[in-house]
């Protein structure tokens, strides 16, 4: 792939990740800026809390799809030649920029979500088995403790462990990316961690 096409797809990956689904759903259907309510986060979890299940589900699906879509750019543009040995590296590159777009979207003055749903979409596109197991970890922790933030952190931490024990690939890029996942989750949830330690984190209510 030539440099110009690489730069173009990196930019497209960022803009895809930057699509402000929570902001658009809030403004279009509820006439509110989701960032001014609840936790102030423009992500699926805050949308669920503030706008309800239907809106939260829509935002979640869109954010997951964003991550899945960018890692499949290498297949959606068949005219682009990519060295088969470098396809995974390009997928990781596009995925990272999609997450950056979600965290710092240009469309909403760089105030985005925490990137977990988009990251899940990337994992589904790259390594579906580990994504499935991480989701099971998320659900288990959520049902046990009712903290979305804690469930997100544990599922992210589980990802490199799953890769280590169950992946047949010894690709260094995959290993580095697997370490990046929990680091991202911990960095974007630092406020939640503080509230958890103080016992002030909000639990979700199951109906």
Describe this structure in words.
This protein is an all-alpha fold and 207 residues long. Helix 4 (53-71) packs across helix 7 (116-126). It has one domain. The protein has helices spanning 3-17, 21-30, 44-51, 53-71, 73-76, 87-103, 116-126, 128-145, 148-166, 172-188, 190-198. The mean pLDDT is 92. The longest helix has 19 residues, at 53-71. The radius of gyration is 17 Å and the shape is globular.
What does this entry show, briefly?
The protein has 207 residues and is mainly alpha-helical.
Helical content, roughly? over 70%
Q: Summarize model confidence as the mean pLDDT.
A: 92
- Our Rg estimate from Cα atoms comes to 17 Å
Percent of sequence in beta strands: under 5%
The SS-based structural class is mainly alpha
Total strands: the figure is 0
Give the secondary structure arrangement, pairings included:
Blueprint (H helix, E strand, L loop, with lengths): L2 H15 L3 H10 L13 H8 L1 H19 L1 H4 L10 H17 L12 H11 L1 H18 L2 H19 L5 H17 L1 H9 L9
Helix pairs in contact: 1-4, 1-6, 2-4, 3-4, 4-6, 4-7, 6-7, 7-8, 8-9, 9-10
Keywords:
mainly alpha; about 210 residues; globular
